[in-house]
Design goal:
Helix content: under 10%
Number of helices: 0
Order of helices and strands: EEEEEEEEEEE
Number of strands: 11
Radius of gyration: 13 Å
Length: 119
């Protein structure tokens, strides 16, 4: 089992930056692809970004391209989401998730961290 704990959320003004962290425990995530998702009030959860097991490949949703960067440090069993030029529409609960290569699905999820961007 993998336990994921997000941190780094908060209340910021538009244009500010935040760095979210996702710390994994229970087992190493070095063989897992990792993703960030978010869910705004009244909306469905949406994909934000993902990174492959060794950090060699990343992919961002169009809505965050050029502003958000996903990265990972397998030695620390941690994944990051650097969020720059935040907009009010980025307000949401942000979740990280782990996708084992052998299942192909995001089987493990954190509890989420709130990001609120004021205008």
């Amino acid at each position: 089992q993998v336990q994921l704990v997000e941190s780094g959320g908060g209340l910021v003004q538009a244009g500010a930056s935040l760095r979210l962290s996702c710390a994994a425990s229970g087992r190493t995530i070095r063989t897992y692809d990792m993703g960030w998702f978010r869910q705004a009030p009244g909306k469905e959860r949406e994909f934000v970004a993902r990174i492959n097991w060794n950090g060699g490949t990343t992919y961002n949703a169009d809505s965050v391209k050029g502003r958000f960067t996903i990265s990972r440090d397998n030695a620390k069993n941690t994944v990051y989401l650097q969020m720059n030029t935040l907009k009010p529409e980025d307000t949401a609960v942000y979740y990280c998730a782990a996708r084992p290569a052998w299942t192909g699905s995001y089987d493990y999820w954190g509890q989420g961290t709130q990001v609120t961007v004021s205008s």
